[in-house]
Amino acid sequence: MQRDMLEANLPYCDDSGRYYDFHSLRVQVGTSLARADVSLKKAQELMRHSTPLLTAKIYSKLQTTDLSEALNQISVPKFVSDSSPKNKTA
If you placed Cys at 49, which of 8, 18, 54, 67 could pair as Cys (CB 3.0 to 4.6 Å)? Predict the structure, then answer.
């Protein structure tokens, strides 16, 4: 793969120290599947992993923006403040 990248004038390692190799492509696929809301079981099967834990912990790299988008999809109950006077017993 390194030779192909050199022939295409693409860096094998970027300025941030990230490598572009077979493993990084698999991480990209796993992350893309997670971002597309593909079930963990389906992602595990597609990536031919032995356990879903491998898929989830090693091959899915979600960012803070991915997580905030997930939170934005849920409905949060609205709380109404109770401004009525409370009965005080003395």
Answer: 54
